[in-house]
Fold this sequence. Notes:
Blueprint: H1 2-18, H2 22-26, H3 28-67, H4 71-99, E1 110-116, H5 120-140, E2 144-152, E3 158-166, H6 170-174, E4 179-185, E5 196-206, E6 220-225, E7 241-246, E8 251-255, H7 261-284, H8 286-296, E9 304-309, E10 314-317, E11 322-324, H9 327-331, H10 336-352
Parallel strand pairs: 4-9
Antiparallel strand pairs: 1-3, 1-5, 2-3, 4-5, 6-7, 7-8, 9-10, 10-11
Helix pairs in contact: 1-3, 3-4, 7-8
Amino acid sequence: MFDKLDFIVEKYEEMSLKVSDPEIINNQPLWQKYIKDMGEMEPIVKKYAEYKKAKEELADAKEIVEMESDEEMRDLAKMEINELEHQIEQNEEELKILLLPKDPNDEKNVILEVRAGTGGEEAALFAQELLRMYMRYAERRGWKTELMDVNDTGIGGVKEAVVLIKGKGAYSRLKYESGVHRVQRVPETESAGRVHTSAATVAVLPEVDDVEVDLNPNDVRVDVYRASGNGGQCVNTTDSAVRLTHIPTGLVVTCQDEKSQIKNKEKAFKVLKSRLYDMMLAEQNKEISDARKSQVGSGDRSERIRTFNFPQGRVTEHRIGLTLYKLASIMDGELDEIIDGLITSDQAEKMKNF
């Protein structure tokens, strides 16, 4: 580990000199790459410097205990030794986490898809509430949201919805949301007051650049049709909605959010490319594919990662055994406590193989 840390410090110092070189400054793409790489290395370099400083101070304190004749000074040095040993241990753990392999998609924007699962109209209503929850979470973090497509039920629920979430580190936090979310509550239509169980699925895909996906336009069938639902005066009067069918894979993407057919087509292609990229990653790494399938599942109630129990005001994150009695605030987008727990658990799992 320390050989790797020394190498990173050496590279960081080397780049620090290069970014001041007029020749590099004039080569903007290269200069920006160096700045980006330095930004990624800086937390490691700073933490390692903190670690080395603590090690030096520990050596000095131990020397005082061995050499100093003044008892009061020795006692102070012993106290400092205890504090420094704890700090060094903490620094080592933090350095290990900083050195863990980074997910190359972590800084990307997100295409988040919500679909109603088992439970009919109640599942569609829950899917709508999940969509709102993620939109509120994005708002709390200062991210921008753009609704790409919504297939609503007409009475407040959604069969499926796709939203683009733009913001720094959006994928790094939202990627843990993929899976089946289960709800337990008494539906408004339930006259006997019985608790029903329904489900909705969430899929989180990184938004991809054109260069990352080789998409042949000849492989895509484009159909246009009249939009339905709320959309202003153009609804049902012009063929503005777009449906893309990727012939080799059978993937189908629709978009009718915009009044302009051109804008809907652009958005639909963005979603299609992200889905193809997700498939490409899954093929490259079957373990990731199996994990994603086990997370998202079929939308059946039993395949859940999280349960929202309305009568008890409880949310249970089954993957890490976390239960919180703050359902209302979570549904209003306060997801950080759950997501932080999932990140910590993921890091601990990776640390086992460090």
